[in-house]
Amino acid sequence: MNNPLTLLVPEKTDVEFDQVLATWQKRGGSVRRLGKYWIKDEILAQQPIAIYGNQTFALVLAQIYNVQLLSGRYADCQTGTQLG
Do 78 and 48 form a contact (C-beta atoms < 8 A)? Predict the structure, then answer.
């Protein structure tokens, strides 16, 4: 990744999550596991982020960090553009 994104994920994960996280990190991204209480982190708010998790997790974090959610196989997390 040219400009590494921090991937926000729930603290509780499973095999699928672990595979996504491993791939994300191999590509140069960092991962932040969030616990039960999702409170805005001002440092994270200044960084490019991506969100991966269940619908409630994603919707709440998108609102907290004022970002647009994307879905799909290929999407540019910086611009919100669907790539495929």
Answer: yes
Tokens (6 digits) for 3: 């400009």
Chain mean pLDDT for the chain: 83
Give the tokens for residue 2: 């040219």
Residue 72: partners with Cβ closer than 8 Å, 6 or more residues away: 82, 84
Collect all residues with Cβ–Cβ distance below 8 Å to 13 and sequence separation of at least 6.
21, 33
User: Which of 20, 10, 2 lies closest to 59 in space, CA to CA?
Assistant: 10
d(CA 14, CA 18): 6
Rounded to two decimals, the pTM is 0.78
Average pLDDT over residues 47-69: 91
Q: Give SS3 for 30.
A: strand
CA gap 9, 34 in Å, rounded: 6
Q: How many CB atoms lie within 10 A of CB 8?
A: 24
